[in-house]
Structure formats: C-alpha cells, structure tokens
Q: What sequence folds into this?
C-alpha cells in the first residue's frame, strides 16, 4: 500500500486510489469519505474485487461542485453533508 506521506496532493498518481488515499488527496477524513459513499453524496467510485477505488478525475469533479469565488455566489449546486437526506437523489454519485 502507498504511504500517504509520499503522495503529493498537487500531483497525485495516475491510477485508482484507495479510500484512505482519496480522502488524503481531498483533505477529509477517511471515515467522512466512507459516509459520503454510504449516503450517496460523495464522488463516483468503483468496486473491484471487493475493494473501493476512486479515480482522481472523479474526485476533482466532485470537489468542483463546491467551488465558489465569493461567499455571495449563488448556490445552485453544492456538496451535501455526509448524512442521510430524506427523499433526495444523490447530487453526484452515479452521474456520468
């Protein structure tokens, strides 16, 4: 397994990332990313042989949802908190 200390967040490896590596790149806790996956509010992921893997491009696309220039920018789309949301469709997970 890759040690997080050798991953440069500004130049991540061109391969699929584990949950731990993906969380480090995005700057959130591993458990928070797991919760986003569970509640359907996180980035797209792949399940390969029982392992959860993330593509760096999907992580970037997911974080771009929350990009703002100013606090007064209109909020048309945003990253939902990692918790259950009653009767709401996932904001990003599964979209092409």
A:
């Amino acid at each position: 397994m890759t040690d997080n200390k050798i991953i440069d967040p500004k130049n991540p490896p061109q391969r699929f990332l584990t949950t731990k590596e993906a969380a480090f790149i995005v700057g959130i806790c591993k458990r928070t990313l797991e919760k986003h996956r569970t509640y359907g509010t996180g980035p797209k992921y792949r399940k390969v042989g029982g392992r959860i893997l993330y593509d760096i491009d999907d992580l970037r696309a997911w974080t771009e949802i929350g990009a703002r220039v100013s606090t007064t920018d209109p909020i048309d789309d945003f990253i939902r908190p990692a918790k259950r949301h009653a009767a709401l469709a996932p904001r990003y997970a599964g979209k092409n």
